[in-house]
Predict the structure of FtsQ-type POTRA domain-containing protein.
Amino acid sequence: MPEASPRAERTGGLPRRVGRFLAAMAGLCAAAAFPASAIFDLRSVTVEGNAAVPAGAVLRLAGVGPGYGAFRVNAGAIRERLLADPRILDGGVAMAFPHSLRLLIRERRPAAALVVRDGYVLVSADAVAIVEAPGPGQLPVLQVDRLDPAEAAPGRVVRAPDVRVGAQIAGAVPAALRGRIVAVRIDREGEAVLALREGTAVRLGGPRGIMARLELVPGALDAIAARGLRVESVDLRFSGNVVVRPVRSAAAPPPPPRERQENPPARGIDPAMHRPTNP
């Protein structure tokens, strides 16, 4: 019986090798298609923790929704896209694989109600315009004399320096003063004034060193209260000095007119009108 040639042996094994190769390729194709299968698509995407930013806006920022492949979810990339809206302080993703995704939102908190035209825009301590509001609620009113209303559109960081200073003050109010401050005003000279619920105005001055002066307010008010004084204003603008203007009694009769004369030393001087020189 003739022996099989080596060529015949090699040719005879070719179909088996081709079959194994095709089977392997089919397996690889199936494995590659497995994550993209519709059975791993998201069916539910919800938003939690949002108040000012609408859920629809959050979903658009995140770039995910029902039908999105579960294997394509990238939590880090989603968080970066969410933080593109300055109203969102932080964001995260919680997934119940493979069909449910929750977008967890932590928004900036309002510190003041900025007066804009005939209404208010709630702003954070770092001057992010959060949302329009019909009234200030429990927040202090922030009145800025130099303001372009277009800068205070919700969803934007307000760049106006006076707004930034006023918002910072509102956000840094000492605990002892919360509830007593009804308004923060930044005037045309860029100086800050606090309006207290009892009618007292506290003058803080310009931006330089203003946080340190703000910390002095509770102690100054406590010292005034301990002396039983009712004051119209407290001026902290001058380093090392507290200038107090008492409330003038409406029942007190005006002083009688008198002829013009030279004032002797230490007489005829109203201490409340005396301001120390600015060092």
